[in-house]
Write a structure and sequence with these properties.
Helix content is 3%, strand content 56%. It is mainly β and 675 residues long. It has a single domain, classed as TonB-dependent receptor, beta-barrel domain (Maltoporin, Chain A, Beta Barrel). The strands form 4 sheets. The chain has a 22-stranded antiparallel beta barrel. A 6-stranded mixed β-sheet has the order 2-3-1-8-9-7, with no helix packed on it. The termini are close together. 51% of the residues are buried.
Length: 675
């Protein structure tokens, strides 16, 4: 079997080392859709995951405790972990970085994922590893595929289909592999389409889309100790409507190529070396006329984002310490233009932006005794950034002149370099057979992205201008977590604090008769609490609860940071007997009044409004038939509640609705056949 379910580990650390004398007995909670399952080990958290089919990775992730998402339409949910988003998160798709092509975040990296084409997803909250790139202050998300597992047959696979009534959404998928332990070929395809859905008040929300992904993977065992794997993946998004933007997206395409070479050593300190190479090419376009009624000013914004990189990782054991060390590179080139419908360029949004990063890292783990484990890591990154078209005259001006309007120096756009150092140290102590405590102290440095540095959008009504001299963010975090592993209950309590020097703040200010979005550095703080518990009521019933609370403050201005999720409680009750699994989920979200409202006449932040609280009930059921056939069905938002997620964008189509609303009641069904 390639997979029976997608495994989702909401990890506090990369690994879950077993204490000497402590049984390794992870609690596995089967979620009704077969997507996914949650593993709770010493270093993981219990969390409820939505049972219904998901359109992309962002929609799946935001159903986890401590993870939220920004909605603009029916696709491309932009994930938020502990109040942090965009490049504050490291998101890798089977080892590759994909940076979206839309300056307005219509295509975050998770939008280029067909969730059930991956074998596992790992969410690492906070900065707990230096292996996966610089930054990652909010967390790291790993969408991963593995070598297919074959039994007596030389083939394996899964076919799937799903349908959701609200929005008339369907999905079809196929994942088939043939081969053996010596080599394999694997083909994955996924197709999804949806119409606009209705919110809980019956209002139609612009959210339709078409999506198609095709993946070819090859693996070959060169020797008993050496394997090579290669893949090519094509993701196509077409006619994607966005209620939360002034434009829609006629197309967004990503082509990704990967190569992985792994060699194991039979003796000596070195245990394994792995070389990973990748290249992703993104083409995106958005306009305000092809998919909606055209106005007086018909505009489009074609863009590209090409990323290439790789990492060389060594695993070793020396002096009774497990070591991981190596180097990585990541080079990203972006271009975006603002054009009229005839293709005449009026502005350069991303004027030939190049951001290159080279990193060195080392990470170590040592078992001090039967009760103590220490982990530590150190990372150095050299970053260069420049805008090659800063002096190009387009529309009567240059990007350099636009940056100068926001106070940039005369050399803005020329190459700038940074030398960033980050790391962490973590200590896990077993108090007794039932309880353990872990503390982590870390520093991570997040360099500014292409938009924060070099955006150069100027119109008659508003400006959006980057800051070429912006400093990188420095996150200093302390986290303490207590876990209990009892016979009938597993629980965890986590508190964390993050002081950020040079936090990159997007702020709206007045610029004469119009508004202007700029970026500046401020001091900020983020902190929160996460509680989780799973109780086995008896052999068939399990009760789960998670509570998440996050606060974000701009310490320079004594205001709140934008898009911070309110207090949230999730409860689930699941019944499982033989092949039957049924469950109910109840999501309770408080109102959010600590905000920084958008607009130059307000705080100048990104919040749309103070959002009211809400409660949503979902129900689901699954039955596993013989020979790999599974039937899942359920109803999301059973009470047809009208609500919006606080972090979501404003509804630019219907301002009376304030924000892009979530879907109302939606019945769904999913069928999978494994073989």
């Amino acid at each position: 079997m390639i997979k029976t379910t997608l495994s989702l580990a909401i990890a506090a650390t990369i690994s879950a080392p077993t204490f000497a004398g402590l049984d390794d007995k992870p609690l596995v909670v089967e979620i009704t859709s077969g997507l996914p399952q949650v593993e709770n080990t010493v270093h993981s958290e219990t969390a409820a995951v939505q049972a219904s089919p998901t359109t992309d990775g962002g929609e799946l992730l935001r159903s986890l405790s401590g993870v939220s998402g920004i909605r603009m339409g029916g696709r491309a949910i932009d994930p938020v972990i502990r109040g942090q988003s965009q490049t504050q998160l490291n998101i890798l798709l089977d080892g590759a970085y994909i940076h979206g092509g839309c300056p307005n975040r219509m295509d975050p990296p998770t939008s280029y994922t067909s969730v059930d084409s991956y074998d596992s997803v790992t969410v690492i909250k906070g900065n707990r590893s230096v292996v996966y790139g610089g930054g990652g202050s909010g967390g790291t998300v790993l969408f991963q595929r593995g070598w297919p597992m074959f039994d007596e047959n030389a083939y394996t696979g899964e076919l799937s289909g799903s349908y959701q009534g609200n929005g008339n959404r369907y999905e079809l998928g196929a994942d088939v592999a043939a081969g053996s332990d010596d080599g394999y070929i694997r083909v994955i395809g996924h197709k999804a389409e949806a119409d606009n859905y209705d919110d809980g008040d019956g209002n139609e929300v612009r959210s339709s889309f078409e999506s198609m992904s095709k993946t070819l993977l090859l693996g070959y065992r060169l020797t008993e100790l050496t394997t090579i794997e290669a893949s090519y993946e094509q993701q196509e998004e077409n006619d994607v409507l966005f209620a939360g933007a002034g434009m829609d997206s006629p197309y967004a395409n990503a082509d990704t190529t990967r190569l992985k070479l792994t060699h194991e050593f039979e003796q000596g300190a070195l245990q394994q070396v792995q070389l990973e190479l990748y290249r992703s090419e993104v083409e995106h376009n958005m306009d305000n006329y092809s998919l909606r009624p055209a106005g007086m000013m018909q505009m489009q914004a074609p863009s590209t984002s090409d990323t290439e990189g790789g990492r060389l990782i060594f695993d070793a054991r020396a002096a009774d310490i497990d070591w991981t060390f190596g180097a990585d590179i990541q080079n990203n080139d972006r271009n975006a233009e603002l054009q009229n419908s005839a293709g005449v360029v009026s502005r350069l949004l991303w004027p030939g932006v190049e951001i290159d990063q080279t990193g060195l890292f080392v990470e170590a783990e040592k078992l001090l005794s039967g009760d103590d484990i220490v982990r530590a890591g150190l990372r150095y990154d050299h970053v260069t950034a420049e805008a090659n078209r800063a002096d190009d005259v387009v529309g009567g001006t240059t990007p350099q002149a636009i940056w100068a309007m926001a106070g940039a120096s005369a050399d803005a756009g020329e190459q700038r370099s940074e030398d960033n150092v980050g790391g962490f140290v973590a200590w896990t102590h077993r108090l007794n057979d039932d309880y353990s405590i872990e503390s982590t102290l870390s520093r991570s440095v997040r360099t500014a992205d292409a938009t924060e540095r070099y955006m150069a959008r100027m119109t008659t009504t508003s400006d959006w201008i980057g800051n070429p001299s912006i400093e990188p963010e420095k996150h200093h975090q302390l986290e303490v977590s207590l876990q209990g592993d009892l016979d009938a209950m597993d629980w965890s309590a986590t508190a964390w604090y993050n002081h950020v020097s040079d936090y990159i703040l997007r702020q709206t200010v007045a610029a004469g008769s119009k508004s202007r979005d700029i970026y500046r550095n401020v001091d900020a703080e983020l902190y929160g609490v996460e509680l989780a518990a799973a109780v086995a009521l008896n052999n068939h019933w399990q009760w789960g609860n998670t509570l998440t609370w996050t606060v974000g403050n701009n310490q320079d201005d004594d205001t709140s940071l934008s898009r911070i999720a309110p207090l949230e409680l999730n409860s689930s009750l699941d019944y499982q007997k033989d092949q039957l699994n049924v469950g109910v989920e109840w999501q309770l979200v408080a109102s959010q009044n600590d905000i920084c409202l958008a607009g130059s006449s307000n705080c100048g932040g990104q919040d749309v409004r103070k959002t009211p609280g809400y409660g949503v009930v979902n129900v689901h059921a699954q039955y596993a038939f013989e020979r790999g056939l599974n039937l899942q069905l359920g109803v999301d938002n059973l009470m047809d509640k009208a609500y919006t997620v606080h972090e979501s964008r404003d509804d630019s189509i219907n301002p009376d609705l304030f924000q892009v609303a979530e879907a109302g009641r939606s019945a769904w069904v999913r069928v999978t056949q494994s073989f």
